[in-house]
Amino acid sequence: MNHIVIIGFMGSGKTRVGKRLSGDLGLPFVDIDRAITKKMDMSVKDIFQRFGEPYFRALETLAVKALIDDKERKVISLGSGLPIQEQNEKYLKNLGTIIYLKGSAETLKKRLEGNSTSPFLEGENRDEKIKKLLKQRDPVYARFADIQVVTGVKPFDGLIQEIEEKLEAYTKK
């Protein structure tokens, strides 16, 4: 199934972009993190604290595997850590067209100000943590991406228009 899959760092706009694309394209929207938190009736942070990261990553993998077999085309937003988990590589390649929302450290830092939901940003020196995670994850996201767009540069409608144009060109290949 050729779903439209959105990846990117925390704060890149995956959910907002995914909801808008799903509306524009008339496709259902699935946010993997939200699906997991709804099923577990816990926040991501609480799942990490209670069961640990490996448990959460296993839940993500199960969710992605289920979507591969889903015959109804969807717009899917992945959690920012899902693509960097080696076990997910084979599933991501079979999931659909992958759009990477690439944000600068400055854009992401501004958008994540006050965010207390991510276990990865807790503690001191958030700026350094963001830069470190971005440096680690950017090459992985870029490797998976069929389409890349830079977020935080142009107005939201312009970003959506760019994504939709690139999607159309990509699907005509």
Description:
The protein is built from eight helices and five strands, in the order βαβαααβαβααβα. The chain has 173 residues and is of the alpha/beta class. A five-stranded parallel beta sheet has the order 2-3-1-4-5, sandwiched between helices. The longest helix has 19 residues. The radius of gyration is 15 Å and the shape is globular.
Quick structural overview:
This protein is an alpha/beta fold.
Which SSEs are present, and which pair or pack?
Elements: E1 3-8, H1 14-25, E2 29-31, H2 32-40, H3 44-51, H4 53-68, E3 75-77, H5 89-95, E4 96-103, H6 105-112, H7 126-144, E5 147-151, H8 156-171
Helix pairs in contact: 2-4, 3-4, 4-5
Estimated helix fraction: 40-55%
H/E series: EHEHHHEHEHHEH
- The number of distinct β-strands equals 5
The percent range for strand residues is 5-15%
Separation of termini? 17 Å
Structural class: alpha/beta
Q: Major β-sheet, in short? A: 5 strands, parallel
CA radius of gyration is: 15 Å
Instruction: Return residue spans where pLDDT drops below 50 for at least 5 consecutive residues.
Output: none
Give the overall shape, derived from the CA principal axes: globular
- Order of strands, widest sheet: 2-3-1-4-5
Number of helices: 8
How confident overall, as mean pLDDT?
89
Oligomer class: single chain
Descriptive labels:
8 helices; 173 residues; globular; alpha/beta
